[in-house]
TrEMBL record:
Protein name, as recorded: DUF2621 domain-containing protein
Bilayer-crossing regions: 6-28
InterPro entries associated with the record: YneK (IPR020203)
UniProt entry keywords in alphabetical sequence: Membrane, Transmembrane, Transmembrane helix
Pfam family of the protein (one): DUF2621
Taxonomic source organism: Virgibacillus oceani
Length: 155
């Protein structure tokens, strides 16, 4: 009987350490996003900036499309993903000097904001919506760093 209790205590300890490690990992990532970059603003500051600057540019159809595109993201992470993606879409719209967020801008920003591992889900969702991905093929090949470098060169 004592051996079983010892075994359960060890398993409980492993479970607690594992859960605390996972939580710590996500807290550390959030901390890193809050650290200022070379320009004095953090990643989260830039996200908030682009969200505020482009809030008036969103039409209902584009908001609905964004909601449909983020629907495969687990609900726990959906709000964070939506903000990151919407801010990237806003950045693209401002860089292209657009007055409204169009479907093309939305898809371009969404592709740039999502990691390559999620592109297959995005392609599937766009196919379901009967949206041709051919004009965006070159964007699927870019990494976020490559896009940043292209943006800097074009400015």
């Amino acid at each position: 009987m004592s051996a079983i209790v010892d075994y359960l205590i060890v398993l409980w300890g492993i479970l607690l350490i594992s859960l605390m490690s996972i939580g710590g990992f996500f807290m550390f990532r959030k901390f890193l996003k809050r650290l200022p970059k070379e320009d004095g603003k953090s990643t989260l500051d830039w996200e908030e900036y682009y969200m505020e600057k482009t809030r008036h540019m969103w039409k209902d159809d584009e908001k609905k499309l964004l909601e449909e595109l983020v629907s495969p993201v687990p609900e726990l992470f959906r709000d964070v993903a939506r903000q990151k993606i919407a801010s990237k879409i806003g950045e693209v719209a401002l860089n292209k000097k657009q007055r409204t967020i169009t479907q093309d801008i939305l898809i371009e920003g969404y592709i740039i904001a999502t990691p390559k591992r999620d592109h297959k889900f995005l392609r599937k969702k766009l196919r379901e919506k009967e949206i041709d991905v051919t004009p965006y093929e070159s964007l699927f090949e870019l990494s976020p760093d490559t896009y940043r470098n292209l943006k800097k060169r074009s400015q």
